[in-house]
Amino acid sequence: MKKRMKKTAALWLTVFLFSAFFCGCQGDPPPGNAGSGESVSDSSSVPVPSGPSQEQEPGQRDPKPVVLTPTAPGTEVIGNEAVSIDVSNKADGYMTVTYHGDNPKVKLQIKYVPDEETVYTYNLQAGQSDVFLFSRGDGEYQITVNENIEGNRYSQAFAGTCQVALKDQLTPFLYPNQYVKFTEDSQAVGESQKLVQSAGDDLEAIAAIYNYVIGNIQYDFDKAASVQSGYLPDIDETLNTKKGICFDYAALMTAMLRVQRIPTKLVVGYAGELYHAWISVYLDGVGWIDNIIYFDGKDWVRMDPTFAASGGGASEYVGDGSNYHDLYYY
């Protein structure tokens, strides 16, 4: 077991969050060529982590990516003339939201009622449908849409509730969403298959994807200095330009892991007093690895891939996980 663990090499993703965008804003949390993946839209057959398939040799895992495609069948919709919120697939952990108005500044807020302090805030664009997760699990969610009046003042355009009972607690973290957007045609999907071709298990697949990201993506300091609040990553642009900011690193890695059937959370929270993002993964037979993922031969530790890629040190952010506090899951 230890031998397998050592191969994982620096798997934990904690990334610096800078001012002016999701990585360091003081207000809202973050708003926002052919692949070879298998597209799955029927949620009744959603693949979950499992051992080698019958076609695979023992000690191997199937590298073929599986892309879950969100749908909006319209069988259960809430909203009004301003917004349509399709919650038909709430049991699979997501909803599709379409804003019909023409206000250029619109906020979607999702509150998980059992935890009154946790409110997710997103930007909506007129005429565009986006996917959002019910990422806190079973329970009641309050959903509001607010339109800008002027400055920082907003008026409520819609308010409603949705009761969620998930078929599987892992499924939401296999789907794409507004922050981690991909399709079966995304270049990153096909690249994930190449990277994990020789992986014997999910740990080795995670290591291969992690090592690729930190070894090939350079930190874009110019972009970090100019990025605006509400920025959404483009995983294929990151892959092609070979550079990005912390949000780009996290989104690219999360997308690659999800299409490899590894449930993955992009987590936002605090490391000490710093606003950070990191990744949690689910391993079959182990469960969620939320705090520590890299095994150094003695202990599991964290590592920041942004620091690793830029040549910086990460010792300040490596520890037993006690100073990390989760706030949001995407």
UniProtKB/TrEMBL annotation:
<feature type="signal peptide">
    <location>
        <begin position="1"/>
        <end position="27"/>
    </location>
</feature>
<keyword id="KW-0732">Signal</keyword>
<feature type="domain" description="Transglutaminase-like">
    <location>
        <begin position="238"/>
        <end position="307"/>
    </location>
</feature>
<feature type="region of interest" description="Disordered">
    <location>
        <begin position="31"/>
        <end position="73"/>
    </location>
</feature>
<dbReference type="Pfam" id="PF01841">
    <property type="entry name" value="Transglut_core"/>
</dbReference>
<dbReference type="InterPro" id="IPR002931">
    <property type="entry name" value="Transglutaminase-like"/>
</dbReference>
<feature type="compositionally biased region" description="Low complexity">
    <location>
        <begin position="36"/>
        <end position="53"/>
    </location>
</feature>
<protein>
    <recommendedName>
        <fullName>Transglutaminase-like domain-containing protein</fullName>
    </recommendedName>
</protein>
<dbReference type="InterPro" id="IPR038765">
    <property type="entry name" value="Papain-like_cys_pep_sf"/>
</dbReference>
